[in-house]
Write a structure and sequence with these properties.
Elements lengths: L1 H12 L11 E3 L2 E4 L2 E5 L12 H14 L14 H13 L4 E5 L2 H12 L5 E5 L4 H10 L2 E5 L4 H11 L6 E6 L11 H10 L3 E5 L14 H4 L8 E5 L9 E5 L1 H10 L1 H4 L6 H16 L3 H18 L10 E7 L1 H13 L2 E2 L2 E2 L9 E6 L6 H17 L3
Parallel strand pairs: 3-12, 5-6, 5-7, 7-8, 8-9
Antiparallel strand pairs: 1-2, 2-3, 4-10, 9-10, 11-14, 13-14
Helix pairs in contact: 2-11, 3-11, 4-5
The protein binds pyridoxal-5'-phosphate.
């Protein structure tokens, strides 16, 4: 076990050691830690759906009817009508013919990517793709060609040089990037995928619920649902629940049922979660104003921080503020915590060395006063601690 001790000591030295928080409780926009309440800017519960009464009610009713666990995988006796209903509703929400549910976004990416690319194939992926997409690509054993973030010229250069050397090719991107909060040039990606005969898979984990009409995502907002072969999205972030889907043609979902190992070899999600997810889709339609309110608020928040000379970026509810060194980011986060704000720094290896950052994620439930106060706390940080 010496190698473990050495590894942990090294991570501690580098200020990259990860530890857990063990919160007393959390709610949208707030956490309670050791009896102390903090405004939370680090969750993906963007719309506050995790505590929405309609989701809680739906989950509770399903719990009474179906019990706790699903009992088996979907291909054994864990496949209930409720799972199918959620898949039908999700397909229609995403304007695709069909949808297949996975136990998490991680399961979806590591399960689906190896189905579409094998050892004679190529994967062209944005260099900021999520770890679950990268892991899916590694598992696939395909030759990997990362392209510079959102750089379509670089992607086209790679396609020109390499596409003909491989049988199948898959292009991977996120629509809203999880750490940088910016948007993929989806139209250009569709053009390239058509020109070079590739399959395009778009991860909408951070767009679902926020972008597009009633939160249908960025692919839908751009009118591209028909052209993106595989639309992946999660219920675990803005939709406040759990699990993920691939929305695609029926041909593809039938194929995935037979080939995606993370779908085949894992117990189905419990019906309480499936029912809450169904309720979340309903709330997206009945309360469609939350996403636009949040995006508007994020825009103003970004403008104020930028005016205060912070290096701010993003085009979504995710607002990265570049800090630089890991230790500095940790120190600043500690200062904000003392003032009542949880803004967890994102550090290597999640982001490249020297680009540690605050990743403010706004939540619909944050009040105007809370936002103003965190802006003031950032001003004080600049006044007394920066440079
Ligand atoms: C872009 C992206 N894809 C996939 C996932 C994984 O989703 P889940 O948390 O449902 O496993 C995440 C979550 O961090 C993500 O940010």
């Amino acid at each position: 076990m010496e190698f473990i001790k050495a590894y942990l000591a090294k991570r501690k030295n580098e200020n990259t050691l990860r530890t857990l928080l063990a919160l007393d409780t959390r709610g949208p926009g707030v956490i309670v830690r050791q009896g102390q309440k903090y405004v939370d800017f680090s969750s993906n519960d963007y719309l506050g759906f995790s505590k929405h009464p309609k989701l809680i009610d739906a989950a509770g009713q399903a719990l009474d009817v179906y019990g706790v666990g699903a009992g088996a995988s979907r291909l054994l006796s864990g496949d209930l009508k409720l799972h199918h209903l959620l898949e039908e509703e999700t397909a229609s929400f995403k304007h695709k013919e069909s949808a297949l549910f996975f136990n998490s976004g991680y399961h979806a990416n590591v399960g689906v990517i190896p189905v579409f690319a094998g050892k004679n194939d190529a994967i062209f992926s944005d260099s900021l793709c999520h770890a679950s997409q990268i892991d899916g690509a590694i598992l696939s054993r395909a030759k990997r060609f990362p392209f510079r973030h959102n750089d379509m010229e670089h992607l086209e250069d790679l396609l020109k040089k390499e596409r003909a050397n491989f049988e199948k090719a898959l292009i991977l991107t996120e629509s809203v990037f999880s750490m940088d909060g910016d948007l993929a040039p989806l139209r250009s990606l569709v053009e390239l995928k058509e020109r070079y005969n590739c399959v395009l898979m778009v991860d909408e984990a951070h767009a679902t619920g926020i972008f597009g009409n009633q939160g249908r995502g960025l692919v839908d907002a751009e009118g591209l649902s028909e052209y993106v072969d595989l639309i992946m999205g999660t219920f675990s972030k803005a939709l406040g629940g759990f699990g993920a889907y691939i929305a695609a043609s029926r041909l593809i979902t039938d194929y995935l049922i037979n080939s995606a190992r993370s779908f085949i070899y894992s117990t189905a999600l419990p019906c309480s979660i499936i029912a809450a997810n169904l309720a979340a889709l309903e709330v997206c339609k009945t309360e469609p104003g939350r996403g636009p309110v949040l995006l508007n608020r994020a825009q103003r928040f970004r403008a104020v921080l930028s005016k205060d000379d912070w290096d701010v970026s993003g085009e979504s509810q995710i607002i990265p503020v570049m800090i630089g060194e890991s230790k500095t980011a940790l120190d600043y986060a500690g200062i904000l915590l003392e003032k009542g704000f949880q803004v967890l720094p994102i550090r290597p290896p999640t982001v490249p060395e020297g680009t540690s950052r605050f990743r403010f994620s706004l939540c619909y439930e944050h009040t105007e006063e809370e936002i103003n106060k965190v802006v003031e706390a950032m001003r004080e940080l600049r006044r007394y601690h920066v440079g």
